[in-house]
Predict the structure.
Amino acid sequence: MRNLKRLTIFVALVLGFMCIPGIGTSEASAQGRQDFTLVNRTGVEIYALYVTPHSVDEWGEDILGADTLLSGEELDVFFSVRERAKFWDIRIEDEDGNYIEWDRLNLLEISKVTLYYRNKKPTAVVE
């Protein structure tokens, strides 16, 4: 199941970003440098996950699809090797559509993002 999630997320990111003007059309780099692991420590099950370049005004597709991410679970997010964006925004939604957003994460310097929600305050620890 986890491998299916990884493949689904990779395909969604590749296809989604190929449709955005100016993204997915640049010369290929040596690797997908924005790849990262997302860790859900929010205490709630994530029903929707969006990872979008900071410069884009719309969230695009939910990369979890029909899957969810339980609190305590990790998910590897992969990008196309052609992706060039440096700063990314993350949005999660619970079953009722309540959402939390984290903006302007430099995924060129981050390999792991751990999301928390404590005392009614969203935080993210990055490594």
